[in-house]
Amino acid sequence: MILVVEDSPDQQRLVRQMLETAGYRDVRTCDDAPEALEIVRKNIDQMEAVITDVWLIDGSGIQLTRDIRKIDQLRDLPVIIMTGKEGPEILPQAVEAGVNDFLFKPFHWMELIARIRNNLRLKSEIARRVAREIELAAAKDELREALSRFEEVSHQDALTGVSNRRKMDEHLEREWRLAQRARRPVSVVLIDVDYFKEYNDQYGHPQGDNCLRIIARVVANGVHRPADLVARYGGEEFILILPETPLEGAAHVAEVIRAAIEAAQIEHKGSPLGVVTASLGVAALLPEKGYEPVTLIQNADRALYQAKKERRNMVSVSREAL
């Protein structure tokens, strides 16, 4: 069952129609948080996902998410927030509450279906792998070891949920080879959170971890193509791999992400701007003989260094090898 929680009858009807047209037959709707929570509690075993607006007739989608996460069986239930004019300002609260994904109104039906399918696929994969590990584990210690092995070989960063360094290396190597054959450029964007040591000193490492989760979500929302990859590069650094993207296109993506991070308005008393910002370095290469993927990253790293050196909270572009 997919539950749509929306206080606008027209929007409610539209989302339901989109889902049913895509083949999802068990779709329920309601317009307030208390009724939604009651439906969820009565249909725990049938629940597949919840799509909720931020503001409802009674309550909010963020509080509804918090209440859902209190139910043990539904801690992995995909919850997607629909938001309009609020934009990225609601991201910190939503991520903290346990929201899995966002839809910014107005959205195309293909975006809705893509996000639903991606979240259901991830939920199914997690359930399948956990079930397999449980089958293999004969005792609690063995189960703990199996889950630990699963996390080690996983391609997902445990803290932020985006891809990890291993996945990034593999993805860049593969896209580099494809770009060589097609003679198309590959771009990289390196993202470094400004004054992050000061943030940890001011707010503590647990809050610093939460800050990185929010940044990861903002960055992930800035890319949309299947071949694009967001990964945690290390510490407070993230990296974007943008295949078949020229330098100008990558710089545009970087600026959109930079602005979105600043607009998230994450308080940072240790920063001159009073909010969390990021510096970004952009580089692009046409893979040819003599170049390696590491060259691309090195160029982006030098551009990032320039951004940090100049004034931070900016995008710096590498013109090397262009």
Low-confidence stretches: none
Tally the helices: what do you get?
A: 11
Classified by CATH, the class of the largest domain is Alpha Beta
Helix coverage percent: 40-55%
Write out the strand line-up for the largest beta sheet, numbering strands in chain order: 2-1-3-4-5
Distance, first to last CA: 52 Å
CA gyration radius, whole angstroms: 21 Å
CATH architecture label name of the largest domain:
2-Layer Sandwich
What's the rounded overall pLDDT mean?
89
Structural shape: globular
CATH topology of the largest domain: Alpha-Beta Plaits
CATH superfamily of the largest domain: Reverse transcriptase/Diguanylate cyclase domain
**How much β-strand is present in the residues?**
15-25%
Q: From N to C, what is the helix and strand string?
A: EHEHEHEHEHHHEHHEEHEHE
Question: Would you mind describing this structure in some detail?
Answer:
This protein is α/β, with parallel strands linked by helices and 322 residues long. It folds into 2 domains: 2-122, Rossmann fold; 165-317, Reverse transcriptase/Diguanylate cyclase domain (Alpha-Beta Plaits), CATH 3.30.70.270. 49% of the residues lie in helices and 17% in strands. It has helices at 9-21, 33-42, 61-69, 91-97, 109-136, 140-153, 165-182, 196-203, 205-220, 247-263, 293-310; strands at residues 2-5, 27-30, 49-53, 79-83, 101-104, 186-193, 229-234, 237-243, 278-285, 315-317. Helix 4 (91-97) links the parallel strand 4 and strand 5. The mean pLDDT is 89.
